[in-house]
Write a structure and sequence with these properties.
This protein has 191 residues and is α/β, with parallel strands linked by helices. Helices cover 32% and strands 16% of the residues. The chain contains 8 helices and 7 strands.
């Protein structure tokens, strides 16, 4: 995982509430234990028509959505079943951040563990972002703020351990392996 200090990108907006993990990555694509290729199936039931062609009415298929790394979604993003495949699919597609007024707890934690940044903002900021798709903003992990043009920086909360790992490009296993000598010494004392 690469260290993440900040992400500056245009936004892509899906203004729907209660986007669940089965909409993010349908269960029929959960047959893999690797992350690669899941982006192809991100929002597949919305991105593609029944014959498999791209749905021209879905925002992620629009030319202006290309290269966007920040998704602004309606309330209660990531609800539903627990699956790490959801943040994996978002990341594999190229998205790095989801912003909402509410993000489901299990998704929130799975996202952080996998290098995807879930950001909860106040209702006023959220409404502005929903009304201004494509605006370039910065999610600054170091200061835990969202920088929106013409507005005061918007603070967001992130667990200190998760923040440390993201800033240093570590997942939980990477964090533990940094302390392998200390762990081995502890185990030797415990014998």
């Amino acid at each position: 995982m690469e260290p993440i200090k900040s992400i500056t990108s245009k936004t892509v907006v899906i203004p729907l509430d209660d986007i669940d993990t089965d909409q993010i990555i349908p269960a029929r694509f959960l047959t893999t234990t690797t992350r690669e290729g899941l982006g192809e199936h991100l929002f597949t039931d919305w991105r593609y028509t029944k014959d498999g062609t791209p749905n021209p009415d879905f925002v992620l298929n629009a030319p202006e959505a290309q290269d966007a790394q920040i998704l602004v979604a309606g309330r209660n993003f990531g609800c539903g079943s627990s699956r790490e495949h959801a943040p994996w699919a978002l990341l594999d597609f190229g998205l790095r951040v989801a912003i909402s007024t509410e993000i489901a707890d299990i998704f929130f934690n799975n996202a952080l563990k996998n290098g995807f940044i879930p950001v909860v903002v106040d209702a006023d900021t959220h409404a502005w972002l929903l009304e201004n798709p494509g605006v370039e903003i910065t999610v600054d992990l170091e200061s835990s703020t969202v920088i929106v043009p013409g507005r005061d920086p918007v603070p967001f909360s992130v667990d200190s351990f998760a923040k440390y790992c993201l800033l240093n490009g570590l997942d939980q296993m990477g964090f533990l392996t940094q302390h392998a000598d200390d762990i081995a010494a502890f185990e030797a004392r415990a014998e």
